[in-house]
Amino acid sequence: MLRLSYFKCIMIFTCCCLFTLQITVAQPCFPGEITTAAYATGGESDYIKDVLWLTWGSTNVSTHRYGRHNQQLTEGAASYASIPVGGGKYLCLQATIENIQGRGGISSYAPGNWGGDYMDNLYNIGGDGAANKLVNGIKNSTAGQRVSFTIKCRATLDNLPVRIAGLVFGDAESLAVPEWFEATADGTWHIVELKKNLGAGDYKVEKTNIIEGSITKQKMAFISGNNSNTAAVSFLAFNQSAYRPAEEGYEVSFDVVLQGNPQNPGITAIALGIITLGADGGDAPESYGAPIHILEGLAFTDDHIPPNGQTVNLNTTSYEPGSLALPSSNFLGSTGPDADNGTQYSQNALADDNNPNGPSNEEDAWPTAHKRWSYNATYKQGNTLNIDIPYNGLVNAHIIGWIDFNWNGEFEESERATAEAPASSDVATLTWTIPADRIAKSTYVRLRYAINKDEIESPTTVATGGEVEDHFIYILGPATTNPMLPSKVKQPTQSP
């Protein structure tokens, strides 16, 4: 995905996690560190908003905001990200280089420095070629040499450790026949992006499973190229065994080897990034807070490359890469959540359905029959509400819901209902008793689904996986607001 200036070979490593917001210069996560990791602002890729690129070499954000090209990287070199995700919360990510081996070591690289590469055409800041300011590559410092190193990364959200879902690995420059590079990690690799140049020559890759006791790692090897505007990108989904314990920040790692051209000495380069699959947030008015559900887990369509060491030529008319897909299980309703680009406060609680490509029916867990309640027949003090909530789950989980009965613009403990959501079923029943302090005006409900119940005990906390849905309930009857107008629940000025 990234290219090395003047030289060949790229590799992209992407760690998955969250909202695709442009990194700011502010450093609430790592005070005193250089936080230059960034999203591309230009390029042809379909995944520009999904990949947070790790950048390297900068010692001054003012002069080199997105990394600095051709700087020697030593043991312990790190890339930092501090990403606002709404509600005053930040995704904080750190990636560190360790165990550098090989003559000459490694240096930072800005794709676009070699005329035959294509990574900067897919992802860039400022334009492709020499205009590209995104220094998301790593190269072997000495031409023709083989180097290896390990990348370790971890992330927190709202000061809590979160799992990095995956990595990305691809060709940052333009691989030539004597050059190659590979990455090995505890997970599964998937070619999801490919720029062909038919007639320019073969572009070959291999995937190989490596069994280490009870762990199966996978190696993705780019074994030869044509040195002419051909490039591929591979995304990795981590296995559960890849994560260190929570007290060690769910740290993950992967190993990289780069081989430069030993015959006509040249450089091989890799690009490193983080897949920010995104997170699901609420869309009720701001007074109800900003819950976040990290979209944990990656799904891919088949890339037609078997993990048995078989060589596959990607640069053919018949080969088609796979693609990144949304999680297919463990969510509310019948449709999984999409990634929200920050908080989406709205008076009608429909902002999530309407963005980014709405209107849709993505938030469909609250039954249509309960969108409107009669004050006389349903919403009387002491009545019991039994609401069946559909869900899609492969493992045992939990659903918690809140209804703002007292119309104070908050979801309170006394307004909460909880239900188990076993994998053996697809419907859970939430039960409320309408309290004496209920106000007969249209109001809001929040639903949260997660495997870990502790993560959703509050209506505003961070949860790993699952989904949150907000819904507006019309109360029909005397002394109510017009049911066709937004509720007049106390709320601050709405965000667009």
Question: Can you characterise this structure?
Answer:
- This protein is mainly beta and 496 residues long.
- The chain has 2 domains: 38-277 and 296-325, no CATH class; 337-476, Macroglobulin (MG2) domain (Immunoglobulin-like).
- Helices cover 2% and strands 36% of the residues.
- It has 2 helices and 32 strands.
- It has helices at 119-122, 351-354, and strands at residues 38-39, 51-53, 72-73, 78-86, 89-101, 106-109, 137-140, 146-157, 160-162, 166-170, 180-185, 187-195, 204-212, 215-224, 231-238, 252-259, 269-271, 273-275, 279-281, 292-294, 299-300, 312-313, 324-325, 331-332, 372-374, 384-392, 397-403, 416-421, 427-433, 443-450, 462-464, 467-476.
- Strands 4, 5, 8, 9, 11, 13, 14, 16 and 22 form a 9-stranded antiparallel sheet that branches. Strands 25-32-30-27-28 form a 5-stranded mixed sheet, with no helix packed on it.
- It starts with 37 loop residues before the first strand and ends in a 20-residue tail after the last strand.
- 52% of the residues are buried.
- The model is unreliable at 1-26 and 479-496 (pLDDT under 50).
